[in-house]
Specification:
The protein is built from six helices and 20 strands. By secondary structure, it is α+β, with helices and mostly antiparallel strands. Strand 1, helix 2 and strand 2 form a beta-alpha-beta unit.
Amino acid sequence: MLEMNKLIIIVIFLGVVIFPYSDFQPGSQSRNMKTLDIMFYNVENLFDTLDSELDDDEFLPQSQRRWNSFKYYRKLNNVFKVIALCSSDMSTPDFIGLCEIENHNVLDDLCKRTHLYQDKYGYVISEGKDERGINTALLFKEDILRLISSTSWCPIDEDGTHMETRAILHSSFAYGVDTLDIIVCHWPSRRGGAIESANRRRKVAYFLKSKIDSLGKDSKIIIMGDLNDEPDSDSVYKVLQAKEAGMEGSNNILVNTGSGYMNAVRSYKFQGTWYMFDQMILSTSLYQSERGLYYEKQSFRIVDEDVLLTEDNSYKGFRPYATWWGYEYTGGFSDHLPVTIRLGYR
């Protein structure tokens, strides 16, 4: 039944025609200001097939993975299908945060060589210190959103040197009367063990907290990303101080929209256990806003449609239908599930 659902949804994807919203100029104060749909997705190693100066040998035609043009373009099309699945009212998300992106080339191909070209996306990408060249990126609809600035924040260690980890992408946009700051993260992995690697994520959290504080308490901010920690982990809950709305002191801290999410399927599965690594965190000024952009309460969701899942033969239940199972090519979407929220405007 699961395989049949996958086939039905993919067939629907191939027939979808998406029409961009273009009733007003970017950043204008039109009376027709629309809600904004926002998506984050760890796409699982979106690399092109070309050799670079960085350590991308794993994703080359002669590598053990035999990464070639067929697999690459299938991967691009799969990413488009997931974006289409996250559409609302036949319109793709207005902002799409991505991680595990190699370079500008793959973003250009995603925006221009898939059906996504119909939606007129612009994009920005981070420039970090990761040895593999893994970056974060943000797609945005240029016909309704005006990019003000974009920069890469490279986390700094206690001794003042740059950490060899993914950069944090910070972008500011004008929309109506508001300026919206969007931060896309991919915190250090749990490679080597969750406890052993926890200090690296705490360091990135401290660095990010200082950057957020510098933006000012009235700023409307969205932090999205694969944090490789859960909402109740020290790095998120204590260092970043992102907590569930309504908790004591929540008026003075960041609000984690995914905290308390009760769905049995979360965003990532490892050795039979589901984790909520992919999160959307908002500043209280956005969460509680009474003018301009505001968070539509309880709009956070993990997109866990059947087509994005496959049977977990190693453990019980299902797992994300990934592109890879170890070094075995399975041709799926990603080892993570996407998450979405919605902002209203008043």
